[in-house]
Amino acid sequence: MPPIYIDFLNRLDIEELQITDDEILAAVEGGLLSQGRGETVIEPRMHLEPGVANGHFNVLRGAIKPPIDSAGVKIVGDFVDNYKLGFPSELAMLALFDPRTGAPKAILDASGITDMRTGAVTAIGAKHLARKNSKILGHVGARGTAYWNVRLLDHLFDFDEIRVHSRRPESRDAFAERLSQDLGKPVIATADWKSCVEGADIVVEASRLDQPTPMLKTEWIKQGALVVPYGTMSAVELSLTDIMAKMVVDDWGQCKGGKFGSLRAHVEAGKLSETTLHAELGQIVAGLKPGRQSEEETNLFWHRGLSLSDIALGHAMLEKSKRLGIGQRLRFA
């Protein structure tokens, strides 16, 4: 048997890549384009609950045809009490394989990839579904993915006003300060949900609830806004879907099943179904379905996280690491 080598990128390697906002968005949008064209295979995510802590593992699986030409599996832990230990709530690993032989190609620290690709999907969804002149962002949640949501959304829209909220004052204040320094503009930390999201052009709900609780009220959403709810536990009212002109998801196969997700109750109640669903985001990116068509539309985008986005961004990072000579090459067999 010929030798098999794998590329390995740890967290320090990925930081050294200094991947740019535009590189992240281009990689993830390329993965969505492939999905929309039917050039991918995606399996619904699976969950593993160890039962020894307040959290679970997500197992995401997929494959993308050339030029990316990789199959991949990402395992990401989602443990909400990790902050007490000084750990991020999400720690992840991505493994890439040759789809023709099954030979492993690479292992990457995927904690940063998870955060970046989540923010990119949020931003690309807004690119196609929000008003082009959106100037006010209301963001609930301050975990890792939240930073990239705000950063990449602002990269596309250059907001006049950014509001953020999270349950713990020290968390939201530190989050607002970090964003203000990195974005070079004021970021407002609000004390409650209403003052954060009411009247905003784009509303992102990335909260960390222990159980479904309707914290975000439908009446706070102004006409013409885009709402992006993706918390593990639902924080929205059942009536939220009633005001929507278009409802878009990242992958209907993932969204229609499982016990977790911000719109799980809406699926079970039939408010979000194959009949009421407008499109998957990949179909819009590929030009097969329209995005926003008027200023008056109030739209919703629910994404649960795509293995395809992990694979596409991981592939882009590997290509850049080879150009820059970053990372390690390990003998596998």
From TrEMBL:
Gene3D superfamilies: NAD(P)-binding Rossmann-like Domain, ornithine cyclodeaminase, domain 1
GO molecular function, one term: ornithine cyclodeaminase activity
Family matches, as InterPro entries: NAD(P)-bd_dom_sf, ODC_Mu_crystall, ODC_N
GO cellular component: cytoplasm
EC number: 4.3.1.12
The organism's place on the tree of life at top rank: Bacteria
Alphabetic keyword roster: Lyase
Family, as annotated: Belongs to the ornithine cyclodeaminase/mu-crystallin family.
Protein's name according to its UniProt entry: Ornithine cyclodeaminase
Organism whose genome encodes this protein: Rhodopseudomonas rhenobacensis
Organism lineage string: Bacteria, Pseudomonadati, Pseudomonadota, Alphaproteobacteria, Hyphomicrobiales
